[in-house]
Amino acid sequence: MKISKPGRVRRQPGRPVWLFDLDNTLHHASYAIFPRINIAMTDFIMRELGLDRAEADALRTDYTRRYGTVLVGLMRRHGIDAAAFLDEVHHFDSLSGLVRTERGLARTLRRLPGRKVLFTNAPLTYATEVLGLLGIRKVFERVIAVEQMRDRRGWQSKPDHGMLRRTLRALQARHRDAVLVEDTRSHLKAYRRTGLKTVWMVGHLHGARRVEELANVFGAQRAERLAGDADPNANPDADLGLAGELAQRQFEAPGEGFAEGATMGPDVRHPSADASGGHAQRRGESGRPHYIDRRIRSIKSL
Ligand SMILES: [Mg+2]
């Protein structure tokens, strides 16, 4: 694994090691960045594999679900040039107008006790630039992007177990001290089994914002239940369930916002990873899936 050995960082048992996802966890990627990345990925697939747009879109979402990232799917199945792909699909003339996040994020992260590591399926150049725009680059002792997740098997990405194990070993951190903060439930689910703690950040998700609106109409309890039903591990179009509910109630135009949110993004969701079927999975008393220790709407809640 191409993660440099820790320098000054020594193993500190018991001290939390925060593994932060980037897109839709630390900033609102679905606002403007994911739509552009998805179009660029589809264009790349059309050109390189000779597919039409619908076929390329279908392949993109299928590989995201099956392999964790489109990159890993394209590498394993088609042997594409990874560097060219990453450069092309994450190319932005300017990211500054596209990045949005919650107020006070940098201060919140600086005050959070423990070690902080960025752990993202996105490429390093993009991740570093976004962190710079968010003013939080120095908060993180390490940035682990998709290039750093490679091992002798080849390209890896979340939620690969071997990659996580090697990452924590390189960080000299124990699973029990690690806390994964993520928007993608399939990553949380896969990694919760390894013994780390999981925090589901929903503040930048389409569905979550609608839950806030739903709560005003149906009450908090009903809104939470609807959010629980919108389990992307169970159904690739899970958010459509929530949208459908809204449409039925004539609360909002059918499908607005949700269709994209359900299938969008370079590291979105892996419904196929859930062999048990999402609706059959155990849920805690709160209605939260058992693999989620905490559900937050803001990093301030950590
Ligand atoms: Mg994410």
UniProtKB/TrEMBL annotation:
SUPFAM superfamilies, per the entry: HAD-like
* Lineage start: Bacteria, Pseudomonadati, Pseudomonadota, Betaproteobacteria, Burkholderiales
Q: What is the designated name of this protein?
A: Phosphoglycolate phosphatase
Q: InterPro entries annotated for this entry?
A: HAD-like_sf, HAD-SF_hydro_IA, HAD_sf, Pyr-5-nucltdase
Annotated spans, Disordered = 257-291
**Regions of compositional bias (Basic and acidic residues) in chain numbering:** 282-291
Q: Which domain of life is it from?
A: Bacteria
